[in-house]
Design a protein that fits this description.
The complex is a heterotrimer of chains A (259), B (276) and C (254).
Chain A lengths: L1 H30 L9 H13 L2 H33 L1 H14 L8 H8 L3 H25 L3 H9 L4 H38 L4 H11 L3 H36 L4
Helix pairs in contact in A: 2-10, 3-4, 3-6, 3-8, 3-9, 5-6, 6-8, 8-9, 8-10, 9-10
Chain B lengths: L1 H12 L5 H4 L5 E10 L2 E11 L4 E5 L6 H9 L6 E6 L2 E2 L7 E4 L3 H4 L6 H12 L6 H11 L15 H14 L4 E5 L7 H18 L2 E5 L3 H7 L2 E6 L4 E7 L10 H4 L1 H18 L1
Parallel strand pairs in B: 3-8, 3-9, 6-7, 7-8
Antiparallel strand pairs in B: 1-2, 1-4, 4-5, 9-10
Helix pairs in contact in B: 5-6, 5-7, 6-7, 9-11
Chain C lengths: L2 H26 L11 H13 L3 H32 L1 H14 L7 H9 L3 H25 L3 H9 L4 H39 L4 H10 L3 H29 L1 H4 L2
Helix pairs in contact in C: 2-10, 3-4, 3-6, 3-8, 5-6, 6-8, 8-9, 8-10, 9-10
Classes of the chains: A mainly alpha (259), B alpha/beta (276), C mainly alpha (254).
Chain lengths: 259, 276, 254
Amino acid sequence: MSGLASRADRARGLCLPLGGLLVAEAAARISGLDSTTLAAPSAIAGAGARAALDGSLFAATAQTLGAAFAGLVIGVVLGLAAGIAFGLVRPLDRLMEVTVELIRPVPPVAIIPILIIVSGLGFRTEVTTVAFACIWPALILSRSAVRGVEPRLIEVSRALRLSPLARIGKIIMPSILPNIVVAVRLSVGFALIVAITVEMTANPVGLGYAMIEAQQALDPALMLAVLLWIGGIGWALNALLLLLAARVMGAAARQAPSP
Amino acid sequence: MSVRVRQAKRRFETPGVAIEAIAPAPLIRFRQVGLDIGGRTIIDGVSLDIRGGEVVCVVGPSGCGKTTLLRMIAGFVQPTAGTVTFNGQPTAAPRPDVAIVFQDYGKALLPWRTAAGNVALALEAIGLPKPQRPARIAELLALLGLGGHADKYPAAMSGGMQQRLQIARALAQEPTVLLMDEPFGALDAMTRQHLQDELLRIVTDRGITVFFVTHDLEEAIYLADRVIGLAPNPGRVAREFDIGLARPRDQLATIEHPDFLRLRRALFEFIKAAES
Amino acid sequence: MSVSRLAWIAASALVFCVIVAAWQQAADARVFSPVFFPGPDRIWSALHRGWTQGDLAARTATTLGHMLVGWLLASVVGVALGAVIGLSPLASAYLKPTLELLRPLPASATIPVAIALLGLGESMVLAVIAFGAVWPMLVGTMHGVQSVEPRLLEVAHALGMPRRRVIRDIALPSAIPDILAGLRLSLTVALILTAVTEMMAGGDGLGAAILDAGRLMRSANVFAGVAILGLIGMAGAMLLSILEARCLRWRLAS
């Protein structure tokens, strides 16, 4: 019964995307579309296939993901370090409050022009911008997670006379792991948005620039193909991280009863 | 009017014979009620009559279907065999003159509404015109001893106060029947005793019929005119205990009465046997 | 607010002042090239000049307008669509998979498409902001109305409340915390996308001004613009906190 219902639901879910695709293709064929802004789904698929075959699509993907990943790692590590420090040392957190609250709302892309002046148009600007965007989720979530660590566990670590580093490694990090995973998921989304933005404005490589180039060359099929490809990457990354999250949470749950 | 009905009923009860012949038709009637879910029999062959104004407590080991019977009267669950009728009508859907009080008051109150707002919800549902609501709300809150707390949110109230509020909301429906699903199970002993006495006072005054599920045997005896003992696997009525204790009841005199102790022993032995 | 809390905020503001003073010292001592990092004094004078003589105030108003209209569009669409999907299994079956496909699409990637379709004007800016900011709201509302305490639905059922009233009195109020969280997140996204689209589209917002100043190596003007964007973000977050405190009084009651 439920199997039938879910199959019907799946069919319903496909109605809109498939229907849209068919309507778009039919409309393009009937009107003999020759546009600088739109393209038939078949033309988009063709352009995508050509870009994949000549390797340009994958080269651009590697550039974008490379920069996004580098920035993500730097940002998350810095954010975690600051978040754990602020979470453990309340006075430090309180003293830095005004400074952090003043810098945090700055939209990451707004610092692109500053970075262009400092480090020019290029990879460093992209990585720095991504890192700036990824610091905040890691900082905020790890700070509140550290504060939420079971006080009994902190007392245990005191009683065992663990060194501060051992305390972080053995008690704090494992307890806040689920929150770190959430922070990374949020950050990955930001990293991709920001990386593509920088490529459109300040670092002429990668998928962001590929889209701009196609748009300016009045090649809507290629532009839309890259857009769909980017959407696919976003979707795949999200799915991957959900899987990772399930694993980490699963591992945490399995380990929970053991001492 | 309802008070008089109750007094009349009492007079019928005193002789203790041939009540069925004289009493009016029962308000709630289970006839050979069964419930199968996914091939499992939850309830089997339950027949039960509840008269208007009666306080009936249901006890039994866990998994014997106490709450399911209550939800059938409420119209939340439909039996797969037999019938449950209210005033001769099948209980197909919830009705305004049947009110429920849940055990988990923390979940059953709207956290974003004040005490007054929570009572208002029931008044809105029965369609009481807006100008008449404040007076009714004040009256109900005062009845449950919440007069000074109308503007408090549930999160700012103790468990006992929250449960009082839930009872006030149920009474706002002006119910004929009050269904109570272990309403005092999560409260401390003192609060529970207070609420038991207040509940008895209110339902006696208003002639409300009560169907009260509990796992506390002493509570069942203290409150009830009749205690229904259920047995599990599948849930069925195993025994009925008529509680002849005098009313009004008293937390000291009633509980020390030899009849109370005798009933307590009988119920304990029944539960022990039903569990094994 | 307690005295110690105020004291800590004052101390924290003092720390910020010390940082700014140190920055000023470093700038005066020419630790960094003044072309890259202007001192706070030059940023302040750029702000002052831009606000009193230049078009900084007008540009700030333009940017604020973009952000608010886009955000409002996103909020209305997001909450409405989220409520429909959250409440109706049928709507959910038809719409949710498509939305799940669209959601991971980085909002900035839609900019070239929006430019191709709508040109470089106002409608492109608003469309991109709304598209990007709609998701947190949609997901928040959907999650909120779906995670209504089942006991409350039983209470509503027992009271014989009609569906319309259940939505208004039970489902939407219980989704308010999630909706507010969505508003907060989408405010951040809206500000980012406002800055980006203004950079890409030119025009008379702050984004374009910052990018132009950057190209001309007028770093004090860049910092001035960035500071205003930051202040906009902070003001938005503060207003939301006030709104949250008002709407969620019942939570803080304990």
